[in-house]
# Entry
Amino acid sequence: MSEPNNIQEYLIQLGASKVGFADVNGLASEFIDLPNGISIVLKLPKKTIESIEDENYEKYWKCFHSH
# Structure
């Protein structure tokens, strides 16, 4: 795999499903010096989500970290 030439490619190589960027200037006063935001999407298997619904957090934790 070649070296990524930008942060989006880098995050996808690390396993992110999607990566997006936004100008968040002025949205939160505590982050006034951080005008840009990055959203990272990670697809999870259905069984991981079902673990949350069942409040089985230990199973969720194991499943989430196995991907």
Summary: The two ends are 19 Å apart (CA to CA). The chain is about 35% helix and 20% strand. The longest helix spans residues 46-53.
